[in-house]
Amino acid sequence: MTTWCLENPWLTFLLLLIAADAVTTRFSWNRKKELLQKDMRIRELEEILCPCEQHDWIAARYETDSDGKATRIMMCRRCKKEKETEGV
Ligand SMILES: [Zn+2]
Fold it and tell me: How far is CA 34 from the centre of its chain?
């Protein structure tokens, strides 16, 4: 390291923090970016099939959890997007 860095403890601390952060979060950051890109792609395709979120919802199936609460799963006829609706 250069002398200016040693002369400034705060900067040294900050640089170490950035370096440590870069090592620990690099992989998860790449993964996050990948997921974000996929998410954006899905949104794009949805927008083409159902502009302005004008989905054509139809009841696809019913799901009951361990408490016996029924959840209706709605599916869009065009883009196959799913959403949950509580109650029947
Ligand atoms: Zn749709």
Answer: 10
Alpha helices in 1-88 (DSSP H): 3-7, 9-49
Q: What is the dihedral of CA 28, 31, 32, 35, to 10 degrees?
A: -160
Distance between Cα 76 and ligand 1 center (Å): 5
- How many whole angstroms separate alpha carbon 88 and alpha carbon 83? 14
Q: How many Å lie between the centroid of ligand 1 and the Cα of residue 66?
A: 29
User: Encoding tokens for residue 10?
Assistant: 């705060």
pLDDT of residue 21 exceeding 90: no
The model's pLDDT over 42-77, given as tens digits with 9 standing for 90+, comes to: 999 999 999 998 999 999 999 888 888 889 999 999
Whole-model pTM: value is 0.52
